Amino acid sequence: MSTYLIRRFLLMILTLVGMSIVIFVLLRLVPGNIADIMFDSAGFVDPAEKAIIEAELGLDQPIPVQYYDWIAGLLVGDLGFSYVSEMPAIDEIGPRIPITAKLAALSLFFSVLFGLPLGVISAVRQNTALDYVLRVVSLSGLSLPSFWLALLILMACVAWFGAIPIYTDTPESLWDELALYLLPSAAVGFRASALIMRLTRSSMLEVLRQDYIRTAKAKGAPDNSVNYVHALKNAVLPVTTIIGIEAAFLIGGLIITETVFNIPGVAHFLVEAILMRDYPIVQNLVMFIAIIVVVINFITDLAYAALDPRIKYAD
Amino acid sequence: MKPTFSTLVAGATLVLLGTGLAAGVAEAQKQGGVLKFYHRGTPPSGSIHEEATNSTVSPYMGVFNNLVMYDQSVATNSADTIVPDLATEWSWNDAGTELTFKLREGVTFHDGKPFTAKDVVCTWNLVLGTAKARLRKNPRKSWYKNLESVSANGDHEVTFTLKRRQPAFLSLLAGGYSPVYPCHVPPKKMRTHPIGTGPFKFVELKQNEHVKFTRNENYWKEGRPYLDGHEWTIIKSRSTRVLAFVAGKFDMTFNSDVTVPLLKDVKEQAPHVVCHKGPTNVSTNLIVNQDSPPFDNADIRKAMVLTIDRDAFIQILGHGETIKSGSLLPPPSGVWGMPPDVLNKVAGYNPDVAANREEARKIMEGLGYGPDNRLQVKVATRNIAIYRDPAVILIDHLKEIYVDGELETVETSNWHAKVARKDYQVGLNLTGIGVDDPDAMFYENYACGSQRNYTGYCKQEMMDLFEKQSMMDNGPERLELVWEIDKRLQEDAARPIIFNNVAATCWQPDVKGFTMMTNSVYNGWRLEDVWLDR
């Protein structure tokens, strides 16, 4: 096990190094840079001034030198300065991470909370009216774009309650925070819960046809015990994989939701930074997301072993 | 004429009435409250001199004072509505080449440092590029081509010396784009934490979140501002921000953010709100790269001008509300634009579009183009709806004269770089003007060497005409010459104007004392007279 962990850890580092190179190079291959964008708000481009700005920001250096400077800074905790706000990148990124983390966690919580039990119910009540309703709901979840759903939620709130649940001020209490994140996380979580529900349903249907389930039922075990203890435990393994992947992909769904609900998280900020070619922000944020994804994958792998004793990681 | 008794009585009555009215108004105004706006995106910086966007000037104008400014309670800016600001009075020398301002005493910047003539000198040295400190961007340098120098005569008097007479120079100083900066604050700090003498102090800008301003307790104008501050919440999604305004989350929309179609929704959903719909003095125009063959041929450019059906643009995109104009906005909203009877005589503006196009086709046929030999072009524009939509209609109009256009959408970040490189054939652009005066318009957009003259249009005879009108006093003679220049610019396809945009700004009924200006979206945001009736 320890050898496996060390190997996985080294692989993680290698993946992150590769990612850093890809991010860095791709960002510089996209046409236009911050100097062009700065001039956009002035309505013209002055080539001489543009060159001065590029030199000030170190953009006139060869790409390997720029990459070295970034990594060297990263290793000592210096993320550089945002080109746009001229503030330390850490001060721009830092406060936004908890916002997105809370939103992501709540979305994931919603998706699991609804997706798993409804998937089990749908499988257990296969081909009943309830099953059909839940299948329609899950299909809607998969087919409705989250930005559309988010806008619909906002419109409904304005039309019915004359209020709009968007972020305009920092929430002062836990209750405020919950109230603020509830609808956006539901909008994002709906899709993930639909996916989890459908996967749980099909996985459960497969398990429910297994001999050991029939044996348990024949021995007179209660339905709930058969469904939720014997069957679900075995059906949940592929679902765990999906939850891990969804957690990593959540950042994509959050971009739109953060924009529509005006939540100042990292997802929306990242898109803005890309549009502004704010390299220090983009590089560091994408690296941060890459680390999260790699770690989640690692944890998911470890979770397999915990959930299924048959899976062992050989030393 | 000697005053008679009756005129004296009438005068006294008027004065009393005026005083009474003023007192009545003053009594009604309430102190306090924070005015909440939404903003369409993070302002690029807080340094007004370095930007050419109302994303900066609208929120930040209240941080500063000008030497003179347009009366904030008069909707249409003109030379007659210029009032004192940091300058208490001004005078020209006999030759009209020296403009001397007497400056207000006892004014301090937000950091407590005193305002003096040195600050005025520093500000315009920055703009002229003669200061030691440097502006990163200097979009209005072309406005001050005629400015020789600025000199302080003691602490409270300053003289602007011009190379030649330019009566409209004062108008350039009166707009929101001409604030006075402090000498002791470097440009970098002005971008991130601007300091001025204005009614509101900058508090903080958080990217994608908000920009906040608080009342300047030491403001030199007694009793102002009425507000405790103003805050701008940044909301990128237009649907979200307009819904939030409708739901009452904000007191005011962003400057001219409500489009004509959207205004109908807003009025339906929130009939109680106050909306001012009017021209923005931002034109949608055609840019043709005159260095790129075959567009170096003036005849092709003329044919392109002739095929434009402006009424179609106005009906489709502006629901009939946008304005047909030359480069300058016509009355009643503007001051200098050609009225309809003059405009209709300009090539391409004749309402008989079929006849215009017939003439255009003849020109094209004369150049060898026809149904079997069509000209293929790329029509470049920004990938934003307000650019893209008219570009699509333009392509349709070009088809009428054997020109097949292909839409080339360009990411916003690359647009000006592409235009500056002249890496386009035909493009569609939007142009806003800070001050409704021919000097600002011609020197910024059509003069040889100006950085914002995107097409590179440069004709000495036109430069001579620009200078001639610039040296004239305001009056019918200057107006006629300005119309003649505008006519020639349109017919030369220097940057043919397709239409002048109209948009709305809305506010809740308890927002008082705000006047939306009709001929510039950049000049009415001092906010010192605005108050909340709560």
What does this molecule look like?
The complex is a heterodimer of chains A (315) and B (534). By secondary structure, chain A is mainly α. Chain A contains 13 helices and no strands. Chain A has helices at residues 2-29, 34-40, 47-56, 63-75, 89-93, 96-124, 129-143, 146-161, 174-208, 211-218, 223-260, 266-275, 279-307. In chain A, helix 7 (129-143) packs across helix 9 (174-208) and helix 11 runs parallel beside helix 12 (266-275). Chain B is an alpha+beta fold and 534 residues long. Chain B has 2 domains: 31-231 and 522-532, Periplasmic binding protein-like II (D-Maltodextrin-Binding Protein, domain 2); 279-502, Dipeptide-binding Protein, domain 3 (Roll), CATH 3.10.105. Chain B is built from 16 helices and 17 strands. Chain B has a 5-stranded mixed beta sheet with strand order 13-12-14-11-15. Chain B is globular, with a radius of gyration of 24 Å. The interface between A and B is large, with 44 and 49 residues.
Shape of chain B: globular
CATH top level label of the largest domain in chain B: Alpha Beta
The H/E string of chain A reads: HHHHHHHHHHHHH
Query: How many distinct beta strands of chain A?
Result: 0
Overall mean pLDDT of chain A stands at 88
For this entry, what is the oligomeric state of its chains? Answer: heterodimer
Shape of chain A: globular
Q: Regions of chain A with pLDDT < 50 over 5+ consecutive residues?
A: none
Main β-sheet of chain A: number of strands, strand sense, barrel status? none
